[in-house]
Amino acid sequence: MKNNRINFEWIRTSVVIIIALVFTLIIILLVSNEPANALREFLIGPVDSMRHIGNVIELMIPLIFTGLAVSMMFSAEQFNLAAEGAFFAGAIAAAAIALSLDLPIIIHPVIAILGGGIIGALITGIPAFLKVKWNASELVSSLMFNYLAFFMGIYVINYYYRDANAGAMVSEKLDISALLIRLIPRTRIHMGLIIALIFIAAAYYFMFRTKWGYALRVTGQNSKFAEYSGINTLRVFLYAQLIGGFIAGVGGATELLGMYTRFSWQALPGYGWDGIIVAILARNNPLFVPLAALFLAYLRIGADIMARMSDVQNEVVALIQGIIIVLVVAERFLAKYRHKWVYKEAKTSISEAEEE
Amino acid sequence: MAELLEMKSITKVYPNGIVANYKVDFSLEEGEIHAVVGENGAGKSTLMKILFGMHSPEEGDIFLRGEKIELASSNKAIEKGIGMVHQHFMLVPSLTVAENIVLGIEPKRSFLFDKEKAIKITEELAKKYNLKVDPRALVKDIPVGLKQKVEILKALLRGAKILILDEPTAVLTPQETGELFRELKVLKEKGHTIIFISHKLKEVKALCDRLTVMRNGRNVGVHQVSDVTEEDISRLMVGRDVILKVEKGTALPKETILQVKKIKQKNQFGQTVLNNVSFSLKAGEILGIAGVEGNGQRELVEVLTGLLNLTSGEIYVKGNLINNYSIKAIRDLNISHIPEDRMTYGVAEKMSIENNLIADKYDKEPYSKKGILNIKHIKKKTVEQVEEFRIKCNSPLQEVKMLSGGNIQKVVVAREFSSDPELLIADQPTRGIDVGATEFIRKRIIHLRDQGAGVLLVSADLNEVMELSDRLVVFFNGEIYAYFSDTSNLTEEELGLYMLGVKRQNNEIIRGAIYEEQ
Fold this sequence. Notes:
The complex is a heterodimer of chains A (356) and B (518).
Chain A lengths: L1 H30 L3 H9 L6 H26 L7 H18 L6 H28 L3 H24 L30 H18 L1 H11 L1 H6 L4 H27 L11 H11 L7 H21 L6 H14 L5 H21 L1
Helix pairs in contact in A: 1-2, 1-13, 2-12, 3-7, 3-10, 3-11, 3-12, 4-5, 4-6, 4-10, 4-11, 5-6, 5-10, 7-8, 7-10, 8-10, 11-12
Chain B lengths: L2 E11 L5 E11 L3 E6 L5 H8 L7 E6 L2 E3 L4 H6 L2 E4 L11 H5 L6 E2 L2 E2 L1 H15 L14 H14 L4 E5 L7 H16 L3 E6 L2 H7 L2 E6 L2 E7 L5 H9 L17 E11 L5 E11 L3 E5 L6 H9 L6 E6 L2 E2 L5 H5 L3 E4 L3 H5 L6 H5 L10 E2 L2 E2 L1 H14 L16 H13 L5 E5 L7 H16 L3 E5 L3 H7 L2 E6 L2 E6 L7 H8 L7 H4 L8
Parallel strand pairs in B: 3-10, 3-11, 6-9, 9-10, 15-22, 15-23, 18-21, 21-22
Antiparallel strand pairs in B: 1-2, 1-4, 4-5, 7-8, 11-12, 13-14, 13-16, 16-17, 19-20, 23-24
Helix pairs in contact in B: 14-15
């Protein structure tokens, strides 16, 4: 029974993805003068060269971090949307540490990443605190905190770390001892991949093997029941969001130290929002986060390559995302088919039982 | 009598795979009161929901006066003259009685709602069926018994000739139940046909003409009520003999475990819901709290368990003043709590049985050590408890949502009993569950008492409080109206008088609920 239901979720998600891709196909056929080429670039492009594969993996890394961060907060039914701001602030903190501290290799990135995590936890933690203390909706305040994180970050870079000689508003070059090493030649796949995998394992272990993770899941499923059982739900709200922000901040720091030599973002990078898509696709389960992140990264890179190599714009991805999210969230989608299946199964088990 | 309605070979499988009805035949004669009895999860509610168009069956047909009908929605069922009064009332609390009754079919003057007309319609209808309601009262202000009348009137206004009542007496006092029965008989005389879903066999005997017994999703027999005894019916329901009386030895009270001293409680609207309540409870005895719901019992349980902060007074458990204790601190004094509303407080329905069973002890050794869950131990204990408490399930990893009501309650009881409580606060422990599970849970409560735990039993089920309690207090309007140190000679009728506040014992007797301190 249980296995069937998990299977069904898989099938449903696959069907949703196929429907989204078919839609994309139709759009491409409608708008493109060279649909075959566009489609080829979109679907095969991400794997047609080592560099492209590298691009997919590179993009997957930040998506894993924000996906985990959002999963953690959503599991506790806390709709904190500040993963975006936490990711950004994490990168700012890492830049500051990389530029102002003089530390040996290995230690330097570790401190920078931890610093990023702590600042990230602060960004999601303040809305969490406001919720716990005065019952302020974390959804609203966290949304606002993204802007706070952004402008404060830009301020810090602009006034303390800006490279006056550079043409654009970027920081000075990061201390090389702070950067993460590249793992695979001819790509920019960096140490962050390993860190991301460690975080997946740790997040899963935390959620399903520790008492805090258990309390977090119970609180998310039914907070009244959690309270009745003696769980301090306010504390759960708080630590779920602190941990979420920490993971997002680590993600931001890792992204900066792995992919860049200067801090150069002029806007919020959007990985925090993508984290929501990843978490929804992964059903908030850390083990499914890498799959969801890989899928989204593949789509993004495919669309980028398509935009470069053909006459179709990469906004197509937004369409696919939209369809996928609506259909995955729509619980009753395909429920009829599932019911037929359940019915058939129940009937056979009854007739078997009666034959006995 | 002519056959009015026939359901043929109805099969219904729920999305969670539970076969709620399997090839069920059901027929109704015009002008009868027909009881549908069965344990919880036997499929009676499902069958009735199909008849009311809320669920569509996978197989089977429905015939009304020999004509096949399709009931795709409740509106279709209402069109065909079928009405239903649900167990949980479907009323808008902030609207008046009249507004609720005409909801959806409002009388209009030009484009506006005609309030006076609605009141007139309600008054006429109420008079015709002799159901007394105040059309101008807000639904949230009227007692449960009246809400039920509003529901019945609502169905009648929509032209219901067949009226389905889903456990209508579950929330009523004996007096209100009597009134309902008289009203239903009036309806019958006026040519309506009534389906009466119930667990309460005594009521079925008193009211109904025929009965259909459901067991495990199947129809296991249709009888004339006059031909069968209560014992026959209960045997048919559970497929075995059930002793509705619980066997219980005399209590051996030990030290005082709970002392409640002059507690007062105000609700959010500033109304006094508990007024000067004092009693005490010893280990090894069961103190029952009887009363019509809404007379302060819920608030009492909530202040005792820490869900609510006490306004004034003192509560001592094992000598500790627990007024300001958190829920966790109270639980750590070895207090267990069976909550009244099991789906809200008792379980997380989308989590597994296993996850639900450890909610109160996941942070204690050996369930977890230094924060790490001991999965092996948890799995072992879960299997043991599922077996010990006879929780019917496919696996301990099954979602609680997929179990029947009685089995969900067993999950709650298994969790609360397995921490060896010294004090159990049981709030409506067997409400709305089947005879088998009820009997099982009552036995466990007595077993717990015999092991030396103190039990505070809050129940609106008179049979339950009278059967189980060693001592009994009656709540009315937030106060203790009566105290009985011995329940053996008590009658339901006498208890009913105190429950409705008609009679009140003198303070001397009520003070007997408190043990004098040595």
